[in-house]
Design a protein that fits this description.
The chain folds into two domains: 88 residues, Ubiquitin-like (UB roll), CATH 3.10.20; 386 residues, YVTN repeat-like/Quinoprotein amine dehydrogenase (Methylamine Dehydrogenase, Chain H, 7 Propeller). 9% of the residues lie in helices and 40% in strands. The two termini are 44 Å apart.
């Protein structure tokens, strides 16, 4: 292949927006030079430019990354027809910060008396909550690595799930009795004086109203084994809507950024609800068995609300901002992610099932799936979009994790290393790392770019049921059958 050959190329953003017109570039152009061209094209389209604001990009052709140069890319491709037409190069902004991988256990914290079934970091990553079979919800000081004196002890049965409100103030927990507890995240004290009751069976999933829709995060949704979904007013401590259309257990719910609620069920369907009035908008059919898990392309930005890890150094004290300011900041962050797939905006939803498949959906408008993703040999237990929305990771009882394109659903790679079922996975904030927890009692940290294991983290004495990566990228928490909570850092 001639080194002085050029090719006509059209640069574009992920949502399809063109960056100028086609340009001739040499095949020998490398990533640094492509970045220079892309930044020049972006700045040429801006009304006010700051030449110091250089954005690092990754570059893709037909979902395949250009890793060194165009010449190297074409050497690795069997299809050379791209020479006969304009080459479309998609520019994907990289995270402007880099998460350093966790590689050692810095604390094993005792406190729970039974298996840890759920845990989650607060939106800014500074606090941690965990739920257990001992019926308690505990809160942990991550500086001293000790539990708060106050903790949630109003439940009388196993804690099944918990969820931080995106403003970081309240934690909701649910138990096998079908009750919901509310706790003040900063102190561990109970919020209010009673548990929310109304479900007839246990609650499998909780989801808060996004911060950019309500600065006080007042509403909470719950999905239950009793086949219903309830929306609660956490200020009035009562249910304001009950959504009844599923015919079997509701396994997972997600409150989307457009005020739609997505629910998965053992009746093999996914339903899309309007949260303002409880109207069922559409039913998404396709799975041949129970639907176990859902993920939204906007999950990370909805979870973290106004907190932006790349701006941690700016020292904005979110705790001292009022609801309106937090809501405005959250809306700005959400709108950037919402427009990634399409100039008109749109969330993507992925579902994982006992039928060994995943489906990719455009749930706001379409009833038909964008893609059916096959390859797992056992049921799918967890699925997550990367924070930059570019990739999907799925965890299965077949001991593997698979990576997929979030745009097309195309299979990219299989991550193998666990020797028993993979229960949960969590992405680092910069989308470069993935951590997985398994029945084999180990955590593993994966390098996503190289598609390989980075660190094997043994230490637990039994199965790991819960794992989370802090939104600031500094630490990982894990818990499971051995009753101990472990913190992992660099």
């Amino acid at each position: 292949m001639s080194s002085d050959k050029t090719i006509l190329s059209q640069f574009q953003l992920e949502n399809g927006s063109l960056l100028g017109g086609p340009v001739e570039i040499p095949l020998t152009v490398n990533i640094r030079q492509l970045n220079s061209v892309a930044n020049g094209l972006v700045q040429a389209q801006q009304t006010s430019t700051d030449s110091s604001d250089i954005i690092p990009y990754s570059f893709y052709v037909d979902d395949i990354e250009i890793k060194e140069s165009l010449e190297k890319y074409f050497e690795e491709q069997t299809n050379q027809q791209a020479f006969e037409k304009t080459l479309n190069i998609t520019c994907v902004p990289k995270a402007r910060f880099q998460v350093i991988p966790v590689e050692r256990c810095t604390a094993t914290i005792e406190g729970h008396l039974e298996a840890i079934t759920a845990l989650q970091f607060s939106p800014n990553g500074k606090l941690l909550a965990s739920g257990s079979g001992d019926t308690t919800v505990r809160f942990w000081d991550l500086n001293t690595q000790t539990p708060f004196d106050e903790y949630g002890k109003a439940h009388r049965h196993w804690i099944l799930c918990l969820n931080w409100a995106p403003n970081g103030k309240i934690v909701a927990s649910s138990c096998k009795q079908g009750l919901i507890g509310l706790w003040v995240g900063a102190t561990g004290k109970q919020y209010g004086t009673k548990l929310l009751s109304g479900h007839r069976q246990w609650i499998n999933s909780l989801s808060w109203q996004p911060l950019h829709l309500n600065g006080s995060c007042r509403l909470l949704a719950s999905g239950s084994k009793d086949a219903t979904i309830k929306i609660w007013d956490t200020h009035l401590f009562k249910a304001v809507l009950t959504l009844s259309s599923h015919t079997a257990s509701v396994t997972c719910i997600k409150w989307g950024g457009q005020n739609l609620l997505y629910s998965a069920s053992q009746d093999r369907t996914i339903k899309v609800w309007r949260t303002t009035d409880g109207i069922l908008c559409r039913t998404l059919d396709g799975h041949a068995h129970w639907v176990n898990t859902l993920a939204l392309s906007t999950d990370y930005v909805l979870r973290t609300g106004a907190y932006e890890p790349s701006k941690e150094s700016s020292n904005v004290d979110l705790d001292n901002l009022d609801d309106v300011a937090l809501q405005t900041m959250a809306l700005e962050r959400y709108e950037k992610v919402y427009s990634i797939f399409d100039t008109n905006g749109g969330e993507r939803l992925v579902s994982g099932s006992d039928d060994f498949t995943l489906y990719l959906w455009k749930p706001e408008t379409d009833k038909k799936p964008l893609a059916r993703m096959t390859g797992h040999q056992q049921l799918i237990n967890d699925v997550k979009f990367s924070p930059d929305t570019r990739l999907l990771a799925s965890a299965s009882f077949d001991k593997s994790i698979k990576l997929w394109s979030s745009r097309t659903g195309a299979f990219l790679s299989t991550l193998r290393g666990h020797v028993q079922a993979v229960y949960q996975i969590a992405w680092s904030a910069d989308s470069r790392l993935l951590v997985s927890g398994s029945a084999d009692s180990t955590l593993k940290v994966w390098n996503i770019e190289k598609r390989c294991i980075l660190f094997d983290l043994p230490g637990h004495a039994d199965e790991i049921y819960a794992v989370d990566y802090s939104p600031d990228g500094q630490k990982v928490a894990s818990g499971g059958k051995d009753k101990s909570l472990k913190l992992w850092r660099r």
